[in-house]
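Morning!

This is the sequence you dropped in the shared folder:
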Amino acid sequence: MNPKLYRSVPLYSVAAALLSGALAGCAPLIVGTAAVGTAMMVTDRRTSGAQIDDETIELRAASRLSEALGDRVHINVSSYNRQVLMTGEAPTDAMKQQAEQVVSRVDNVRGIVNELAVMAPTSLTQRSNDTLITGKVRASFVDASDLQTSAFRVVTERGNVYLMGRVSAREADRATSIARQIPGVQRVVRIFEVLSPEELRAAGIVPAGGKAPAPASPAAPVTVAPVSATPSTAPVTGSTASESQPPASGGAVTSPVR
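The structure's back. Tokens below.
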């Protein structure tokens, strides 16, 4: 067992967060399509094929990272719609880049956002606190009647909350606003695939509220970044220019907590 290399998992309540936090140092925590069952696959906005691919990507990436870098790093690999987020810590920049190259060679990876910090691995206390924050964010999404919790993947690392999902521009902004209000959150990083109303309808997605989305207003166009076919580049993101600007490396869009 390698306690320093494990996968981030979405949690659906604070109780689940506390339980997983207590177990984080003992065994890998794996939650995917096999664990959540058919009901989750039906409500998930990814295709069933994408869900299976994401689970496979995470498992293979974790295994290959363990073989290549062992316990010298602490890396979480989170895949959503074949877009990969890497969070955690690596002691050197060379190891950070090596880890990205390892993950980029996994089949079906469309893009990578490498958010590894060059520093010593965090403590179990910090990781448990991150798990608790994830649970609080997800619980807040459940409480919000205008959001569908299953549309979002939430990952927390050192107080930084990463939001993934296939969402509308309104859902992206609403989820970001909620996450920024959670105690302990240092910043919110949006790694969304923002869909236009037409794309939502074509995918058969009806946002919370039970009404199909209206056509986009010309005065407020929805910005959708293209999906890159190069594994080492960052995936689809969505943001409003007034809220935040992407970092120099591209990909993740940061929304600091004010």
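Headline: Confidence is low (pLDDT under 50) at residues 3-40, 210-250.

More detail when I'm at my desk.
O.
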